[in-house]
Amino acid sequence: MRLAFVSDIHGNLAALDAVIADMSHRKIQCVVNLGDSLSGPLLPIETAARLQNLPWLHVAGNHERQLLSLPIERQNLSDAYTSGQLNPLVKNWLTSHADPADPRLHTAQIWPEQLGHDVALCHGSPRSDIEYLLETPEGESARLANVTEIEERLAGLIQENISLLACGHSHVPRTVRWRSKLLIINPGSVGLPAYDDDHPYPFSRFHRIENGSPDARYAVVEKSGGDWCCELISVPYDHESMAILADKRDRPDWAHALRTGWMPRVRTKEN
After folding, report:
1. 179: buried, middle or exposed (CB in 10 Å: 19+, 13-18, 0-12)?
2. So where are the chain's domains?
3. 163 by DSSP, 3-state: which?
4. What is the pLDDT of residues 136-186, one digit of tens each?
């Protein structure tokens, strides 16, 4: 079985199209989108239209939940812009995404025909869509989470039969081989290679996530000899077109991140 995982597209249609093109020659059997597909100052409606025409499996992220449940006056700049663009058809499509809190995602019971019986999914961590599973904010950046932190965040929700767990949310492409049996992967972000945040769960401290490259990211996994192997893929694309659009939307923070993979050192606007 050969699977692809994408996450955190954030309305970046140019990056999404580049990833789709790169996938086309890799003999992918199934693609899973781990959430946060539209939120941001770029092309949310166009991105939704592109995704709706693909036979992918979709898990909701924290931004889908926020778009559908929070009044616009309580949303951050990225969600509020996206909310203003959404029509009833797109909202209905978002409601059809798998709830990341659904225990069937953590026990491989929701899409066994497509993914088999040993692949678990979440957006952030199994216990929260706003918690990093593999990263911990420290200072003004984030480090690899330690064994105790990962154990706590798994919260006993992943059963013994699970050999692959895919997460997103942090935008950091990473793999961790957990307890020799479980491969945990984060494909990174298709559409936003850097951001800063004031409110990481369960912390409350300012930090930056930076990948140091404007490339779009995704992952391909394949079972070999009974074990899952993962390839983390970095795809160049016309990021300048999206950076120009972010500038036009008065989001210089996004423009800088899209051009460089780094955040500006003078803070501008809330993500």
Report:
1. exposed
2. 2-238
3. coil
4. 998 899 999 999 999 999 989 999 999 999 999 999 999 999 988 899 999
- State pLDDT tens for residues 193-250: 999 987 656 665 789 999 999 999 999 999 988 899 999 999 999 999 999 999 999 9
Is omega for the bond preceding 236 within 30 degrees of 0, making it cis?
Answer: no
Pairwise CA distance, residues 31 & 45, whole Å:
21
The encoded tokens of residue 70 equal 């929070």
* CATH, range 2-238: 3.60.21.10
User: Are the beta carbons of 187 and 166 closer than 8 angstroms?
Assistant: yes
Q: How is 75-135 classified by DSSP, letter by letter?
A: S-HHHHHHHHH--HHHHHHHHTSBPTT-HHHHTT-SSHHHH-SSEEE-SSBTTBTTB-SSE
Query: Please, are residues 37 and 54 in contact by the beta-carbon 8 Å criterion?
Result: no
7-11, 22-26, 224-228: which has the minimum mean pLDDT?
A: 224-228
Q: Are 32 and 56 in contact (CB under 8 A)?
A: yes
